Amino acid sequence: MRYAILASASLIVSSIVVTNTYYRKKQFYPTVVYLTNNQPSLSILLFQCVVILFLIVKALTYAFFGRLQRAEVDNLVSQSWYAFFDMCLVFAFFQNELGVEFLFLFAILLFVRAFHWLLEERVDYMERSPVISTLFHLRIMTLITLLTLVDIYFIKTTYWRPASHGISVHLALGIEYFILILSLLSTIVRYILHSIDSMREHSWNKKATYLLYVDIFIGFIRLAVYAEFTFIMWSLHPFPLFIARPIYLSIRSLKKAIRDVLMSRRAIRYMNTVFRDATADDLAASSDTVCIICREEMSLQTDSSSSAATPTLKRLPCSHIFHVACLRSWFQRQQTCPTCRMDVIREARLQETHRQQPQRSATATTQPDNSANSSSSNSTSIPSTAANNQNLHMPWMC
């Protein structure tokens, strides 16, 4: 309701300004010249353009996403504030090129980025939703196609503009759209993987691994693009301060993705080698026989999908029991117990240390025995050697 009131008020004020100007100038061209040169009139018209653009975005949001969830709105608002802060730094860097075209292009960029953020949220929602409708897939595929065309158009436009007019703010816009199409590529891969997983009868254990490798690949390309842009800008201008935060976030995201891959592989290795299999007594002693990850009943059986019979239940050091496949997919995202949040890797290291202590003590006890035996043999051999040497010097003793 408040958006309708705001749009109506803006339309009424802008209509009054245009009508009054045309009534005084009597012709179209003088009216346009006056409106573009008069600052109050130009501000009112620009505000009306922003309101129209906002209403278009509102209609497209309802068409592609329906009613937004509370978490999506909060995430959109927080990311919009960060994007607005970055744009203020861009405004300060390119202050000599500020103009109506400049502000209009950055307003479009902000709205396009908002659609990319909402698309990422909805694709990630597929993993948490048990039922995905056909309308959902139709909306996602249509929006992916539309955003791809928009990104390619602006990349092409902002690429040829710096080539003919020199490096300007259009290059910064081109880099932003190139980063957006990289994130869109990551979203497309996630959508394909989630769709394949939803069509499978059982959970897909390798999906999380593929997602981690996709994050690493996209992170490397994003960091390379930012580094190249920084080198080009720094060679002709002062250091672009507005690019410092995106570079830092790219490095941190890439570092986190690599660390997640290494830690997940370590946690899975500990699960296979250190953590013991759950027995019937463990399952009977457990107060809850439902796997908290997949919400299915747990039972002792062997995995028939593999060539060798492998157990399907694992018992963590905190006595919680889960499916092996569920734990594997869980450890690829975080290395804690799903129930009590115990650090799995730290507990596995402690168990390995406790297992190695008896072996070290046994090795330490065998070493003194061997040294004692060797010393006694040496002590008996030394006198015999001395006696033989004495007989060689005194032959009458023979």
UniProtKB/TrEMBL annotation:
Composition bias, Polar residues: 356-369
Domain RING-type: from-to ranges: 291-341
Composition-biased stretches (Low complexity): 370-389
Superkingdom to which the source organism belongs: Eukaryota
UniProt keyword terms in alphabetical order: Endoplasmic reticulum, Membrane, Metal-binding, Transferase, Transmembrane, Transmembrane helix, Ubl conjugation pathway, Zinc, Zinc-finger
Region spans: Disordered: 351-398
The keyword Ubl conjugation appears for this protein: no
Enzyme class, first EC level, given as a word: transferase
Subcellular location: Endoplasmic reticulum membrane
Single Gene Ontology BP annotation: proteasome-mediated ubiquitin-dependent protein catabolic process
Listed GO CC annotations: endoplasmic reticulum membrane
Pathway of action: Protein modification; protein ubiquitination
E.C. numbers: 2.3.2.27
Transmembrane segments annotated in the record for this chain: 43-64, 100-119, 131-155, 167-188, 208-225
Protein's name according to its UniProt entry: RING-type E3 ubiquitin transferase
Native source organism of the sequence: Schistosoma japonicum (Blood fluke)
